[in-house]
Amino acid sequence: MSVPLLSVSGVKSFYGSIMALKGVDIEIAEGEIVSLIGANGAGKSTLMMTISGNPRAREGRITFAGQDITRLETHEIARLRIAQSPEGRRIFPRMTVLENLQMGAEIDRARHFEEDLARVTKLFPRLRERLTQRGGTLSGGEQQMLAIARALMSRPRLLMLDEPSLGLAPIIVRQIFDAIRELNRREGMTIFLVEQNAYHALRLAHRGYVMVNGVITMQGTGHELLERPEIRAAYLEGGRH
Asked: Which of 8, 144, 157, 197 is the most interior residue, by most CB within 10 Å?
């Protein structure tokens, strides 16, 4: 692999005295989709939040585009065009869809707003029909589309998606994953995907990692991991949606 866009090396992070990440190493190259799978509580979301600066890595190093970002503040990391769509969607429920998207757009990129609005509503046509509707009145699937669209409004170089399929009906899950694939194929967007839905995540990914109790236990191409019997037994039994 060429010089990675994102490199996480020996990262340990804590919640109080509890070590959540125990020396994690991952790399993501420009233009890749990389999936991180694991059981609930494995530390997947913690890794994504640590990359964003909260919690901070207590040990190890995180670099993005050759720059050490380990000690940067969260807002400084976001300015480097790293966008995150967090677990649980976390949209602004009292704001309209349009206002949510405006919140995602950076002020210095406001001149691109109409262009970016057209781009994300082409990806998620349902949002265009609901621009004046309050976010809290949307369905779960529509809220997830909005959360991803809001992250895209900042024109990220790295898009981090935390459990985008969580709690959604199978048909909506397919729509979300189709949109992620389209972003990567059409725009070459680099995507880091944290998912419990191992089947969809690994089918989509160029490469994948498996996390167990804050440790990376396995890595390989998405196809290789899908074929591993221990992955099938632990994550895929009955998991195809």
From this structure: 144
Q: Is the pLDDT of residue 51 over 60?
A: yes
In the chain, the percentage of residues whose pLDDT exceeds 90 is 85
Count the neighbouring beta carbons within 10 Å of the beta carbon of residue 129: 12
Round to whole Å and give the CA distance between 113 and 101: 9
Can you list the domains of the chain with their CATH numbers? Answer: 1-81+156-241 (3.40.50.300), 92-155 (no CATH)
The overall pTM is greater than 0.90: yes
Q: What are phi and psi for residue 201, nearest 5 degrees? A: -65, -45
The H-or-E segment that residue 84 falls in is strand 82-85
Q: Identify whether the C-beta of residue 193 lies closer than 8 Å to the C-beta of residue 207.
A: no
Name the one residue in this structure whose structure tokens are 């998207």.
Answer: 101
Q: Say which amino acid occupies 25.
A: D
